[in-house]
Amino acid sequence: MIRFSLECEHEHGFEAWFRNNDDFETQKKRGFVECPACGSHKVEKALMAPAVSTGRKQEKIALAMGEAQKQAMAQLKALSEKMRESADYVGDKFAEEARKIHFGEADPRGIYGEATTEEARGLIEDGVEFMPIPVFPEDRN
Asked: What is the 3-state secondary structure (H, E, C) of the chain?
């Protein structure tokens, strides 16, 4: 996974993760890349310094975290795993399936998957209750 620094036409800066540069370009062309601040789809990669991952750097990050933060992170990871284990993965059909459940067109059950910012806004407007599940860097590799 690659983290890109992005900027919309209104100079709002944000970051997003992609499998590679082609994935970013494909999602951008399809209108899936959106500024979280204003919703603009006119997004470009911003100038950024490359991040080099080494074992030593990861050790520094781990050592900088206090015991309370380590415990909280472990609890959050465990909760995230438990939520996934007790739900059906529906992939990029999350918004569609969540609506079916909400409107009684499908049996009620826990689901998880992916949704675009636009799809999430639509779910909120329709009164569908959902929440983001944290994704940790090691989950994406």
From this structure: CEEEEEEECCCCEEEEEECCHHHHHHHHHCCCCCCCCCCCCCEEECCCCCCCCCHHHHHHHHHHCCHHHHHHHHHHHHHHHHHHHCCEEEECCHHHHHHHHHCCCCCCCCEEECCCHHHHHHHHHCCCCCCCCCCCHHHCC
Partners of 91 in beta bridges: 113
Domain ranges of the chain: 2-45, 87-128
Is 95 a residue whose pLDDT tops 90? yes
Q: What percent of the chain has pLDDT over 70?
A: 82
Half-sphere exposure of 102 (CA within 13 A, CB side): 15
Q: What distance lies between CA 134 and its chain's CA centroid?
A: 7
Q: What is the pTM of this model?
A: 0.50
Q: How far apart are CA 76 and CA 132, in angstroms?
A: 13
Q: What is the pLDDT of residues 8-58, one digit of tens each?
A: 999 898 888 888 888 889 999 999 999 999 999 999 988 655 555 455 555
